[in-house]
Amino acid sequence: MLYYRFCSLFLIFLSIFCHESPAQSNTASMAKINDLTQQACDYLDNANYEKSLEKSGIALKYAFDLKNDTLISRNYNIIAINFHELGEVDKAAFFYKKALFYAKHSNIISMRMMITSNLGNLYFFEKKMYTDGIRYYKESLKFGKDQKYAKEVAITNLNIVWSYFKIGNYSEGLPYLRYINDHQNDLKGKSDDIALNFLNGMYWGHEKDNEKAKKYFLKAISSYDKSSDEITDLLYAHLEYSKFLNNIGEFENAYKNLVIYNSIKDEITNKEKVKKASTAGFNRELDEYKRQIDKIESEKIEQYHSLRKSRIIVILFIVISLILLLLIITLIKNIRLKKKANIELLQAKEIAEEASLLKTQFISTISHELRTPLYGVVGITNMLLEEHKELSRSQHLSSLKFSARYLLSLVNDILQINKIEENKVVLENLTFNISDEITVIKNSLSFLSQKNNNKINVYVDPDIPEYLIGDKLRLAQILMNLVSNALKFTKDGEVEVKVDLSKIEGKNYFLDFLIKDNGVGIATVDQGKVFEKFVQVGRKEEDYQGTGLGLSIVKRLLGLFGSNITLESDIGQGTSFSFVIPFEHDPQKTKKIIEDIEVDLTSNDVFKILVVEDNLINQMVTKKIIEKNNYTCKVVDDGFAALEILEKEDFDLILMDINMPLMNGFETTKRIRLKGIKTPIVALTAFDKDEITDEALSSGMNDIIIKPFEPVKLFKIVNYLIHETINAG
């Protein structure tokens, strides 16, 4: 936050403020108030905001009792600084203005100077009300003519320069910059030398004197002392230097400084402490009530002495009692409101949890209902293309097949997003060869690259081991999304897929991935949106295909790997995405994984398959696929029919639908197992696999295949299970 750059200014003024007091009487009350005020200052210096608010609240109460405008202003200002530090901007502004109101009745110059300067910082850097901020800064300068305030005047001038330069008004800021350049000695001992240098750099950069600008920026950066508190100034020095380098075309150096800026910013952000002042604020409100009661009590006592034995005593007593009663009622009401709010929060939490469950159930149901007809559409389309070769060039059939697969891809993307958000995705450990995986992706996207006349260039660092261990399926999904995106938004160009070995830590090999194209590019204003769900850019000029889920899935999957994605792009200059993922390299572990892989036992044997399916279209499609592989197939409509036919005939394998009327697939499987039938049973379903795996295995099923499916995958599982059963017998 920009506010912390000026936090030190508060403490400078605070130091003056806490030690510069008007002539005081030696009364005990005045000494007590000054002691409480000093304690509030000390607690504020140590960032103990709760204690600081507590002490300043009590001091404020006593200051009102004495009607001392100076002490009232001092304590209101301390309260304001506390809220400013805690990020409560509106509360801080309210109390600063209160402090300024009472300060106008005081003759303490430093007090008015400090409060107006604090208001300048708040309005400019927190509220972004630049005109008001500069106005308060200039007001502060009116009180700083005395030489003992030279340092504060110099810092305020520095703030004004930064304010004007921030809004691009260099001509108005120049006189104040000249003043600081002439009074640099006034800044001695402060962290503003870096700030002064990079402000000079900004000015000469604006004047196109690049050599002077670069000299000042480098001076600002090189003058950083790690033992000092100048890291915030160093942060802005790198930021402004990066902007300057970018403007003069030194993009590489600009990027390096931007990286340093982000690194420092992360370091500062990590050190920030989130503090709450709710308890202290509540105590301060109670102190305000006590102050009102004390004032009434004081008035009562004074009138009691002047009007002894008068009826006024009774009236005042009744009034005080009513006020006390009203305060008690108010407190009780507030407690009840808080309890009610807590109940409402619990109810809201329950509603949110119920909504989340309903969303998951809705997505699951919709995906099942969509996959079931899509299985029929894809299957029948394939059958038509295979049985009627003359239709292979039919644009209508190709469009139908593409649309069905597009809808299936959309369903899978929505399910993937939902799984990640519900924390249901667990990374797997599989052995793989990175070059082979990228080659598969390149080949699978060859149609898309040819369509837009693009070339895919692949480079894999030869130092990367042949076999790595990790979740190759999620990695392939990440690369597939990024490369297909690059191909969609590039025409007559090139897409580069580059993998470098970044570093090695023990058995972990960190791979640096870069996917780069020279396509249309992404505007800077849109770069923050592209990773959001269902967001697409670039559709104004061309109707690109896609749902806007690809990059959102990529970002979330990389989060599972503990990685972040970096985007660099500009309109007409292409786009590059980069990220780093660690994979394990362990030859012994790789050997064991390879040994545990199921062997493909596909053979030319003729097997007898039973299909239990209630959907007539899906019956036809599944039967056609099975018989095309020279297997024999019988189809029944429901679980009872399956039990009946199994009493009469033997089958090598059963394909079981899950969602059937009368009796579902799980119950049917349980009854088959109770009869002692050991025939392998494979769930053939449109449900998501993760949702039914536990119930499927517990019911006695051997495996699960999700519709629509690739026939090759079906027959691989069928052959494996049948041979395993035969060998076990």
TrEMBL record:
EC number: 2.7.13.3
Any coiled-coil regions, as ranges: none
Protein's UniProt keywords contain Transmembrane: yes
All copies of domain Response regulatory, residue ranges: 608-722
Top-level taxonomic group: Bacteria
Modified residue annotations for 4-aspartylphosphate: 657
Signal peptide annotation: 1-23
Alphabetized PROSITE patterns for the sequence: HIS_KIN, RESPONSE_REGULATORY
Amino-acid biosynthesis among keywords: no
Pfam family, one: HisKA
Substrates-to-products reaction catalysed: ATP + protein L-histidine = ADP + protein N-phospho-L-histidine
Protein name: histidine kinase
Native source organism of the sequence: Flavobacterium resistens
